[in-house]
Amino acid sequence: MHEGYIGLSTAEVEKSKSQYGDNRLSEGKKKSFWRQFFDNLFDPIIKILLFALGAEILLTLGKVNWVETGGILLAVLIATTVSTASEYGSEKAFLHMQQENKKSAVRVIRNGALSEIPIGELVVGDLVLLSAGEKIPADGTLEKGTLSVDQSALNGESRDVEKRPDGTEKSFELSNSSKVFRGSLVTNGEGIVRIERVGMTTYYGGIAKDVQEETRQSPLKLRLGQLASQISKIGYVLAAFVAFTYLFNAFIAKNGYRSADILASLCDASYVIQTLIHALTLMITVIVVAVPEGLPMMITVVLCANVKKMANDGVLVKKMVGIETAGSMNLLFTDKTGTLTAGILTIDRFVTADGSIASMSELKKTGDLFHFLLLSAFANTDAVVSGKSLLGGNGTDKAITGFFVSEAPPPFEILKKTKFTSENKYSSVTLRDGYVFVKGAPEVLLPKIRRVFKKDGSITAANTDLLRSSYAGFAGKGDRVVAIAMKEPRGDFLILLAFAVLKDKLRPDAKETVKTLHRAGVQIVMVTGDGKETAQAIATECGIFHHGSDELVLDRSELVKMKDGEIQAILPRLRVVSRALPADKRRLIRLSQENGAVVGMTGDGINDAPSLKLADVGFAMGNGEDIAKDAADAVLLDNSISAIKNTVLYGRTIFKSIRKFITFQLIMNFAACGVSLVGQWIGIPSPITIVQMLWVNMIMDTLGGLAFAGEPPLSYYLNEKPKKREEGILTSDMLLHIVLTGFFTLGLCVCFLTVPKVRSWYGKSEDDVIFLTGFYALFIFSGLTNCLCCRCERLRLFADIRKNKPFVFILVCIFAVQILMIYFGGSLFRTTPLSAKELGRTVLLSLSVIPFDFVRRLFVSLRRKKA
What we know:
By secondary structure, the chain is of the alpha+beta class. The chain contains 33 helices and 26 strands.
């Protein structure tokens, strides 16, 4: 085909490259590891901690408690490092997935010879040779040959477009018959294209620019900001109260409420400055203790753990925060082809004059009808059989020939072949023995048909009206119908063999997944390039649309006439948008977000990339375009909508795990603050030492985070409604849990420290080390019971605990390490061995949290039932 073409010379290539550039797409600047690390330091919780730690170092003027400060700083650094490494690793894994495309080569004519070069080295003026199965590498004009091109990745339209040379067309429009565009797929034919636009100047490149726009903040980031504000306010109030109490004791109570002594203290500048600095240090310490500093690391760990689980379920997560966002999603705009359906046309049935045939075994009983359909399938097609697979051909060819691929093709010799075009709407083939086989649009072939085959293989006169009615019935259901006919040797009319009813069948799990998502409170809107009848039929079949309801099916022509406010008003009832273009998808997402929805979007084409980027959570198909995958939050490796259901479940599991961890942390922080404050009033300045508090922080932060990170996704989470975007992390039930259990734990600790009977349970020792060892054990063990109580929302404390084996393992390890500390900690941990009776009483006291929490659960359960 390329004979007579010379193409660009080496010098012309360099000149074109300097003038127009090459075909490489400019990628958005990727953040380095350290830039990502620095950005993650601005997490709302971490900012509070860094500010408090910095202030403490400045105020203490060299007398910093480096053990406590270092422990918290270490937690911050670990959390930030793990978060950065995970995000950076996810990006690297995704980039690795794209490398194959960058390695692809293209056939180009240069210096009078045909050679292969990397796609990125193409320049304006190059002549590219294209054939079936190849992707068009850049925008250009077809100079020779005829191509059938699939442009669905660019415009969403599923039908192939025929391209022919036409010297009159100058502008680049997708509808132009001679212009081809980067990202399209050649499905049939062969041709030579002169490249006229490369790189970011192509239609594809223009979409790539749109993808680089910034999107709004994720619900999780928004909620964490709100939580940081709430906790900081609580911390400030507690800190002010502690400082006031300290100053009251330092200036008033210490001086026996005597005015003269109080005034003397106030006149002592050195004493006043030292006291104020100590009060400020106490305030900062309370703020640091009040803030759940382990939260950033816990969130990172729980996201990483679920990313790995999702990979096993066929979902590659590109942006970790997108998983949690999926749990809050309440509106999903989904494509039809490949997501709800299999994405492959197949024969549903053959329809003859007197019935339908759905299986090969039935068809083989029809005698001559089977023979002629078999001959037509192998002769009148552009699909080539290779073993048990097919190469080339359009979707219709592959469906019909594919139905017979397991059968041995009969012998035949082709004399003449007419290819399908959008003008004639049929293809035909003439064989050497005189038979002619034709397949195409029924409305074109029916006027030429005089006789028809019946199911038994006999032939009868055609009833055209009945045939039109049969065809219209299938077309009205959204099925694609192809008429297959033949002409006998020396015949002058067509004999209808059968109507082939083709379907892009629903995925086996589509119906159940749609039902589950509806139960989970997710509204599903199918946005497709197909016609209204086809779209409505598929939506009805999979349960998205229900006849007889107030649900709406709109065509694009109706949508574009509506104002933004009108669309927002009908959005809750919208179920299908047909003949949709990329701009319609972006408009729907924008208006839905303005309505307060958390929006999900599926897509696979180049045209879908901006919408995937704009949505709160974008799902790209595994077989989709790289630019779509780059814009999305997650890639569905098997293209199935059931993977979205799993992503919603994992998202809700993550959010629940975060809430459980925060509840546990705030309960223990509340108790720790209370114990430190009460200790000063009852004459025990340090009920828990600094080194002991470091172990407490490790339990609450690191180990507690790891324990809750392994929480399993439970199916009943999908029975709940999605959380609103503006809904905070702390709920009234959580606050009730924190306050009640926090006060009970604090009360338990105070009773232990103050009740003489409790003190008498422990042997006497120097500095009360046995008694304080018992208290230290009580605080740790009550932390373990609180951790256990925070894990499950149900009345049954141990429900589903076997599904989180790391949780049990971590709790057992903490208990074992605590026992070792008691018996071998010595002066470092201020512990001494307890007798079996002393240890048993301590454990029993800590277990009292469980019955108390059961009463709380029962109260909450009864209150919910009444509501």
